[in-house]
Amino acid sequence: MDLFDGIVESEPRNIQLAPGAMLLSGFARPFEVPLIEAVHTIVARAPFRHLVTPGGHRMSVAMTNSGAVGWISDRTGYRYDAIDPHSGQPWPPMPAVFAEIAAQAAAKAGFADFHPEACLINRYEPGAKLSLHQDKDELDFRQPIVSVSLGLPATFLFGGLNRTDRTARYRLTHGDVVVWGGPARLAYHGVMPLPDGEHPLLGRQRINLTFRKTR
Ligand code: MD3
Ligand code: FE
After folding, report:
1. How far apart are the CA of 156 and the centre of ligand 1, in A?
2. Could you tell me which of 66, 123, 155, 187 has the fewest CB atoms within 10 Å of its CB?
3. What angle do helix axes 96-108 and 32-45 make, rounded to 10 degrees?
4. Is residue 32 in some structural domain?
5. In a domain, 9, yes or no
6. What is the DSSP letter of 35?
């Protein structure tokens, strides 16, 4: 029996949360500093903002994007757009470290050649939540979505193909990457209100990156 058996807890693990949903725990941790630096660079040009839903509600999660297109919402609906409505300029380009981590994670989960053109960046401050929803503004649902969690831990809700299907809860922590494809791609999901806390690198917030092949 090795002295370190049961002691080394930081070993990355791949766990199937549900058919098509693969958790690569801690996969992004080795890249935490370049990832966070890249977020700061993006936010300097395209600041976090609270979008309004078509129903007129201000989202508690603040959002921005990088890449050729970005996800936006306003009173007229949800869509991907090449122009940031805040600046009237294109979104900041997708950083190389973003594209690389998304492609590597997708490949590990069985999706070769994943080249997303959008990265939606969500910022949760204590109390912010994301109600149960489906991601269906993309054109090709055979393409997965890759998510990267940074900062404070959150409880993620994962349901079924109908809004009323029962939901499972998973804790997503700093550095976790999840690949959502196949039968999980159109599942309802959301995030519980963020508990307060202090993260060594990000302070009182959680940042989530979602990589999307939109067209
Ligand atoms: C399951 N973001 O941006 S990431 C979103 O933590 C979104 O900010 C959450 O839901 C967040 O749309 C959850 C995990 C996630 C992302 C996309 C999915 C799970 C998914 C798409 C289909 C199924
Ligand atoms: Fe979503």
Report:
1. 9
2. 155
3. 130
4. yes
5. no
6. H
